[in-house]
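Weekly modeling sync, notes
Attendees: S.R. (lead), two postdocs, one rotation student

Agenda item 3: backlog of single-chain predictions. S.R. asked that every request posted to the team notebook include the full sequence so nobody has to chase files. The rotation student volunteered to paste the first one in as an example of the format we agreed on. Action items at the bottom.

Example entry:
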Amino acid sequence: MAELEAREAAGRGRAEALRARIAALAEQLTGEEELLSRLGITRQTVLEILGGRDDHGSGALEGAEVGPGGVEQDGDGDGDASVGAALRIDGPVARAGLEGAAAAVGVGAVRVPQWQAGVAEAVLPVAYRDVLEVLADAAQPLRARQIAAALGLGEEPRSVEGLRWKLKRLVKRGWLAEPAAGLFVCCTQPAESA
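Predicted structure, as returned to the notebook:
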């Protein structure tokens, strides 16, 4: 029986470690998906601007001579090669600029500020405000699976684990409390963590 209990404890430990890894991977996946979405929208906007069209189809750069990559060229047609390279979406200068910007400003990172007196829920991203609303409406502490169902995320493990990561982040930042392992409640007066 002692050997069986030891194996059970080891199995629980491995399962908990795997849950932590899944939550970390879900966080990374969410960040990458947000980054891809933003880059897609940015690409469309840049193509519209450089292509001389706005969203209504009219030419914003009417009368301008447009070269490769939608870059406006000067009257004699040769243009400034460095400006053209910088503005080309697929050019090496643009790629280098994007890589530097992503590292400098944390593109794709969801910012959840630390709670402090006077800070309203409006500073949180919409997905986090939705979680707070569900918990505020609940008369008791809820588990991640229950919150996922209330939000319409389904009960797939990846959805629940991604939500669990958000819940843990809200607890860490002082917006929620976790009175027992896996149970989450809204703080009546969020505590500031050190």
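Discussion: group reviewed the output briefly. The mean pLDDT is 74.
Action items: rotation student to repeat for the remaining queue; S.R. to check formatting next week.
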